[in-house]
Automatic annotation (TrEMBL):
Belongs to the BolA/IbaG family. InterPro entries: BolA, BolA-like_sf, BolA/IbaG_stress_morph_reg. PANTHER family: ACID STRESS PROTEIN IBAG, BOLA TRANSCRIPTION REGULATOR. This is BolA family transcriptional regulator. It comes from the Bacteria. It comes from Buchnera aphidicola (Aphis fabae).
Length: 87
């Protein structure tokens, strides 16, 4: 399963601001940004991402996922901190 297909599935099912997908079938890394994560703990956030992909995981089209989720505000803070660390 290619990364564009994963992005397409997540875009259709979830209201996300940004989705970044890297890796290959053996290990996919997903970064998802959206306010759907506001007030939700990390486990529930990951369940939100897993839900639209569960059929592909069961069919072994996706073997392993690494998921990072952020609200828009968390994403802004994270990017600001990364820029400060680079200077």
């Amino acid at each position: 399963m290619n990364n564009e297909k994963i992005i397409s599935i997540l875009n259709k099912k979830l209201n996300l601001e940004k989705i970044y997908v890297t890796g290959d079938n053996n290990h996919i890394k997903i970064i998802a940004v959206g306010d759907i994560f506001k007030g939700i703990n990390e486990v529930k956030r990951q369940q939100i991402i897993y839900a639209p992909l569960i059929d592909k995981i069961i069919e072994n089209k996706i073997h392993a996922l690494s998921i990072k989720t952020y609200t828009k505000e968390e994403w802004k803070k994270n990017n600001k901190n990364n820029k400060n660390n680079l200077s």
